[in-house]
Design brief:
Layout: H1 7-19, E1 37-38, E2 72-73, H2 85-97, H3 102-111, H4 117-120, E3 128-129, E4 135-139, H5 144-149, H6 156-167, E5 175-179, H7 193-210, E6 214-218, H8 219-227, H9 233-236, E7 241-245, E8 248-255, H10 258-263, H11 268-281
Helix pairs in contact: 2-7
The chain binds uracil.
The site of uracil (URA) has 13 residues, from helix 6.
Length: about 290
């Protein structure tokens, strides 16, 4: 502000800031609270006694520098220890690897609180079907119905999946179904790379424990995450690949997600071909 400005103008500007919500004078430099440290306790005063032989030394002359005070936060504010994404993922990996059964894996996921989705989801959606089945099907993430019931693929796309399975003579007693994410992303948005990466150790262990003969990957998120590729589903679908995660490898086949087929029914033909290819691969005859 120009000191020659009339006072009325300065007051108007001040009022403008107050109206905009800036009602507290803090300082003229921004404070990064993540770098800030709690104000240290004042150092204890030196207790050495002064004797006539040791007169108090005059304080050294210092040139006053225009030094800005270090940012401090009030003691009452908690200092949040942030864990890096790598540390969180490494922790997930250690927890998942230590699980020796599906029940244990489900229990560990139930109490795993480092994925932000857990806080917004109603239920963990672990899996459905027969863990002894030769075919394991992996979708993207639970939707609202799945979140409510804690079971994968029970909404409209699940109903289509059931009809697709019936067309090749299967049902939930002859497949095992899970998702990339075991919690619903709010508003059914796509999983973020962090969420997928964080949940991947659990899925990797899940697949290791089930040891399916083949994986059917439903949709782009499932295919790209488990095949470690950025290629889109339109190019990937119908082409056999190899899944390799942890200590387990098996053939995998990407196909369209049922939710996509509901919007693009003309593509059901391709999905049908993929299911036939899967049955052939698993030496199951389709009547
Ligand atoms: N879509 C998915 O990918 N998974 C579900 O469980 C439901 C809908």
């Amino acid at each position: 502000m120009d000191s020659t400005e009339p006072l009325g103008n300065a007051l108007e500007q001040l009022q403008w800031h107050i109206d905009a919500g800036a009602d507290e004078a803090i300082g003229d430099v921004p404070i990064n609270h993540l770098n800030a440290v709690a104000e240290p306790e004042p150092a204890p005063k030196p207790t050495a006694k002064l004797t006539p032989e040791s007169p108090p030394k005059p304080a050294p002359e210092t040139t006053p520098k225009a030094k800005r005070p270090a940012p401090v936060i009030r003691k009452s504010e908690p200092v949040i220890q942030l864990q890096s994404a790598e540390e969180t993922t490494a922790n997930a990996q250690a927890i998942a690897q230590a699980c020796n059964s599906l029940d244990e894996l489900r229990d560990k996921l139930t109490v795993f609180d480092q994925c932000p989705l857990q806080a917004t989801a109603q239920n963990l959606v672990f899996a459905d079907g027969n863990p002894k089945a030769d075919l394991m099907i992996i979708g993207e993430a639970p939707g609202a119905d799945e979140d409510r019931q804690g079971v994968p693929f029970v909404g409209v796309s699940g109903q289509l999946l059931d009809r697709m399975l019936a067309a090749i003579g299967r049902d939930r007693t002859s497949v095992y179904i899970t998702n990339i994410l075991p919690w619903r992303p709010p508003g059914n948005r796509k999983p973020t790379p962090f969420e997928s990466e964080l949940c991947l150790p659990f899925l990797t262990r899940h697949i290791e424990l089930v040891q399916p003969k083949a994986l059917l990957l439903l949709g782009g998120t499932s295919a790209s995450t488990l095949m470690n590729t950025t290629t889109g589903i339109t190019k990937l679908r119908g082409k056999w690949g190899e899944y390799a995660g942890g200590n387990y490898t098996c053939p995998c086949l990407p196909t369209y997600h049922p939710a996509y087929l509901l919007r693009q029914p003309a593509l059901k033909r391709d999905a049908w071909r993929d299911l036939l290819s899967m049955q052939k691969h698993l030496h199951v005859e389709v009547n």
